[in-house]
Design a protein that fits this description.
Number of helices of chain A: 3
Number of strands of chain A: 9
Helix content of chain A: 10-25%
Radius of gyration of chain B: 21 Å
Helix content of chain B: 10-25%
Oligomer: heterodimer
Largest interface: A-B, 26 and 26 residues
Strand content of chain A: 35-45%
Number of strands of chain B: 20
Strand order of the largest sheet of chain A: 1-2-3-9-8-5
Order of helices and strands of chain B: EHEEHEEHEEEHEEHEEEHEHHHEEEEEE
Structural class of chain B: alpha+beta
Strand content of chain B: 25-35%
Distance between the termini of chain B: 55 Å
Shape of chain B: globular
Shape of chain A: globular
Strand order of the largest sheet of chain B: 11-12-13-10-4-14
Order of helices and strands of chain A: EEEHEEEEEHEH
Largest sheet of chain B: 6 strands, mixed
Chain lengths: 123, 386
């Protein structure tokens, strides 16, 4: 499994043709306490850069964009009742959805962990 | 992910934000600082949910030094009270020494220029203390000063700082530091010494909890801040939780729930206009306000509870069961004590009855919701038995 990052602080973990999407630890720290997550419906086709989930903190709503094009094949149902998981384990149990990739070549422009770490340190 | 835009972020903030005398103390505590009303202010320390819960359970300490403190000074109470009554609809002539009232500066249409606290201190005949909102203070001072009669002056207290200590333990904390405030009623004001630091206090606040606002000289505020935080019952609270606390308390946020286009009657603030002023008028917009009292208003401020867990924010359209627009959300978010989303908004008066089903437009979808009575969390102001 390979993990990729965006400048908008999303991560995806890719295994075969399936990418799991979430937001980074940096992003959850910026948001503060997450109180609601809106995940996409299974079967929805998403385009790279398209709004795919919404994370609501106490103060504000933030859109989460898909770094890849594909079809949503699974969503993280338990988040509906425990949105705080996004704060507690953003890059693990706090994932939003799984997307079946339709264009794996899109992965080539994303950052790896080291590049993302350097990017965040520069912010 | 979009960078979250803080609801408190003020686009009119000065290019170089001002700092309160506690700026370094906030940074030392690890606060996240944001521009607000021209100041750099702490939005949160440990986290909004924890801070909110702590304030409701024990005592929360807020730096509200960005707010404006001023004094109207004249020859006697009657003269100063009449000067202020020409600008606000509250009964100030009848304000007893040692008491405070909530009111609004009104324009000629009865619209709210700002909301403010007015107090009359013991032993300070001919003076009235004012506390106004940070974002409005420059305009407020100009507005007030331009309308004062000869012999009445406005003094602005840039040398003062302001703290709020809010929550059920606030009174006990202050008593343990030697302040003789236990017998005070809600909205009482007076001088007291806190751990040897001279202060002017009011038993009030903006969280729906019992508590105090504490005015001290700016030179002493850092010392008082430190002394108060030494008490394990006290934790620092940022603007984030201040907003969620006041929202649950059903209290208006200026610039959101009230502004120059809303009147005190539409906003449900009629309780702050005492009987004599309703009868006599004599304040800006009195004709409009009095006709709204007599004939009713076209729209009203209401509480709204979305059914699910998704919050509706400021600006969300409110629709009726047929999908027609009937109003707008003016404050909305997550209520930590309520444990779900809460909102304040304006709806056409025919839809304002608690229990009315409405919809909230959130991200292109209709979120089912219900009109409810305010506040969302019952106020716990300290009212002595009569």
């Amino acid at each position: 499994m390979t993990k990729y990052y965006t400048e908008e602080h999303e991560w995806i973990a890719v295994a075969g043709k399936i990418a799991t999407l979430g937001i980074t630890d940096y992003a959850q720290a910026q948001l503060g306490d997450v109180v609601f997550v809106e995940v996409p419906t299974v079967g929805r086709k998403v385009k790279k850069g398209e709004e795919t989930a919404v994370v609501e903190s106490v103060k504000a709503a933030s859109e989460v964009y898909s770094p890849v094009t594909g079809t949503v094949v699974e969503t993280n149902e338990p988040l509906a009742n425990s949105p705080i998981t996004v704060n507690e384990d953003p890059e693990g149990a706090g994932w939003f959805c799984r997307i079946e990739l339709s264009d794996p070549a899109e992965l080539e422009v994303l950052m790896d962990e080291a590049a993302y770490k350097a990017f965040v340190e520069g912010l | 992910m979009t960078t979250p835009v803080d609801a408190d972020h003020d686009p009119y903030s000065a290019a170089v934000p001002l700092k309160t005398p506690l700026h370094d103390a906030h940074v030392a505590l690890g606060a996240r600082m944001v521009p607000f009303a021209g100041y750099l202010m702490p939005v949160q320390y440990e986290g909004i949910l924890a801070e909110h819960a702590h304030c409701r359970a024990a005592a929360g300490l807020f730096d509200v030094s960005h707010m404006g403190q001023a004094t109207l000074r004249g020859p006697d109470h009657q003269t100063v009270a009449r000067a202020l009554e020409a600008l606000i609809p509250a009964d100030i002539l009848g304000l007893e020494p040692g008491r405070q009232r909530y009111s609004q500066l009104l324009n000629e249409r009865g619209g709210i220029l700002d909301d403010l606290m007015v107090h009359r201190a013991h032993g300070a005949e001919g003076t009235l203390g004012l506390v106004v909102n940070a974002a409005c203070k420059v305009a407020d001072y100009a507005h007030i000063a331009a309308r004062l009669p000869d012999g009445v002056l406005l003094e602005i207290h840039e040398e003062r700082a302001l703290l709020a200590l809010q929550g059920p333990e606030a009174v006990n904390v202050l008593v343990s530091l030697g302040a003789d405030v236990a017998g005070w009623d809600f909205m009482d004001v007076g001088s007291a010494s806190i751990a040897g630091i001279p202060a002017f206090l009011s038993r009030s606040g903006y969280t729906g909890e019992d508590g105090f606002e504490i005015s001290v000289h700016a030179d002493t505020v850092a010392g008082l801040w430190e002394i108060l935080l030494r008490d394990p019952r006290v934790r620092p609270i940022g603007l984030g939780a201040r907003d969620s606390l006041r929202l649950e308390g059903g209290l208006c946020l200026y610039g959101h729930d009230i502004d120059e286009t809303t009147t005190p009657v539409e906003a449900g603030l009629l309780w702050s206009i005492q009987k004599r002023r309703r009868e006599e008028g004599g304040f800006p917009g009195a004709d409009i306000v009095r006709s709204q009292i007599a004939e009713g208003v076209a729209r009203k401020r209401v509480g709204i509870r979305p059914d699910g867990r998704a919050p509706a924010r400021d600006g969300a359209e409110i629709v009726d069961e047929n999908g027609y627009a009937i109003g707008v959300v003016t404050s909305g978010g997550f209520g930590p004590t309520v444990g779900g989303p809460v909102a304040i908004g304006y709806v056409a008066a025919v839809h304002a009855r608690p229990g009315t089903r409405v919809g909230l437009m959130v991200r292109g979808k209709v979120l089912p919701a219900e009109i409810v009575s305010l506040p969302f969390v019952p106020a716990r102001f300290h009212r002595a038995p009569k």
